[in-house]
Amino acid sequence: MVLQVSNPNDVKIYTVSGTGSRAIPDWLARKKRRILKDDPEWRSRIELIQDFEFPEASIRVKTTKDGKFVMATGVYKPQIRVFELSEMSIKFDRHTDSENVDFEILSDDWTKSVFLQNDRTIEFHSQGGIYYKTRIPKFGRDLAYHYPTCDLLITSSSHEVYRLNLCQGRFLNPILTDATSGVNVGIINPVHQLYGFGTEDGRVEFWDPRSRSRVGLLTPSFPDELDNQSLSVTSMEYKNDGLSLAIGTSTGHILLYDLRSSNPWLVKDHQYGYPIKSIKWYYDDVTGDKGQNKIISADCKIIKIWDKENGAHFTSVEPITDINDICLVQDSGLIFVANEGIQIGAYYIPALGPAPKWCSFLDNLTEEMEENPQQNIYDDYKFITRKELENLGMDHLIGTNVLRPYMHGFFIDLRLHEQAKAIANPFAYVDYRENIIKERLEKERESRIRATKKLPKVNKELAGRLLHSSNKKKSNKEIVDPLKDTRFGELFLNPDFEIDKNSIEYKLLHPTLTSRFAHKESDDENGTHYDKNELYKEESGDSKTSESSETDSDEDLITQVNKQRRIKKIENGHTWIAHSGNQKPKKIEMKIGRMVGSPKDRKNKEIMGNMEMSFKIKNKNNKQSLDDNDSHKKSQKRNRRPASKNVLRGLG
Prior knowledge:
This protein is α+β, with helices and mostly antiparallel strands. Among the domains are: 381-428, no CATH class; 460-498, no CATH class; 500-583, no CATH class; 586-638, no CATH class. The chain has ten helices and 37 strands. The strands form nine sheets. The chain has a five-stranded antiparallel sheet with strand order 1-2-29-28-27, with no helix packed on it. Strand 31 and strand 32 form a beta hairpin. The longest helix is centred in the C-terminal third of the chain and has 21 residues, at 428-448. The radius of gyration is 50 Å and the shape is elongated. The N and C termini lie far apart (108 Å).
């Protein structure tokens, strides 16, 4: 089962019954009730009160004073229906000769009632049926019953208000008002029994039933911009406190008055411009609810619920059919709406009050049904465009009952569409099965293979090295992604922080990184030629060596000097000096240590801090060069600083 719910102004409104709850297209109308079992919308419907409807429209709806019955009138044919709330079903219905304008329930239950017909007829109904029928001189517009005197007040299209005494069974002298076009509405104050008559001229007259004389005259006033508008009083309602009065006008305004003042304390605009048809003061004795101090007003398009103190909007109900009358179920948040649709509307607003006692299950029912999404009434149909219809070879069916035109395409029966699709593409299932298999294989591969992380566009190489180093340091502890560190976020987002590998600073900090053009001879911009064919490459195998070389200041300084003199390391600790032309290359030996020996030994040596650089010319005799290397190593060993302070340990 499903229940339609709306949420205007964050207030939930449940459509228990009404035209909005069964919005079925005309071409889906059922001709036979036995086939309704195949309709999922019909199967999941909620029918709070059985047959709570009329063949065409409902005109008036009211509840009895004991709260056990609902009486409503409607068309067509004109009829009266009484519903028993304890059984949640219709009790009986009666037909009348003319359409009902208004009615009053004279007893606490449904057994005594009076109906005002549009042919100037007044019908009295008892438990057995029509009890008495009479007529009035003018067409009646409204009814009001005065219980202390048993007077039935009938307003009409004349300036007279007819008085029919039900105790004596005769008409009394009418009440003569100053109206020129008729009296639209008449009400009786429930506390002090003061009569109130709203006229077509836009005035309200107050009459005392004891003296049968007028005691007051009220002319509704608007702000300056509305003073010139011609208006008439279309609805009125007293509050149970005996002092508050609500007046509805034909311009769509509601004015709230205190009977002790001639100026309204609040003017509410419905903003539709339609005459106000009904006004209800919400019950103040309902405790613990947001409905206190609220007024419910309705025109033919919308029902608005607002605050009586400041006019603040609380929520609104907008049925899809015109509204004729509204009725509040006592001490609850349920509202009955007579409208131009088949069903009588029933709207439940939990924010106003709880569910009535006779349907207390409605509170739990609304919560359960709200969780289930409403089924689509088009589940058995498929919407296709004209192009898809041509691809299926069914364009010849356009204009037949098989296709239902809708907007830019057609509705077609789902079973017929599946058959046509199978005929047009017999291998569709095979393709579908292959796609499903491929998707499953891809999911399995993703579970076996670790997905590579996307590297940022800025400093992509640095990000890769950081991720690689973090993966090497994996442990049982949670690993922090270095790319998500907020302290260095701009390093991988802002292009201004892009590392320039051609800058001198980068080359000083990374001396082991060189060009990757291996096995190629290259010339620089000045035409300088390098003798060796292979350039130095970074030794990535030993991470400790690379780290120490990057942090060793001595080697950084040497690298800077070598780069300035275009020196590249090639093999076995020897270096080669770049040359121009046909000059022979010279080999340079570089040693790190203190400068020792006599000044004679320091010949042909260049001193830079604690580094020793020896310049030797390459000899043709390889043996002599080897002897020179051995002698140099021995002298270096002999002149090495002792490991401890005991100098004698190194003698001998």
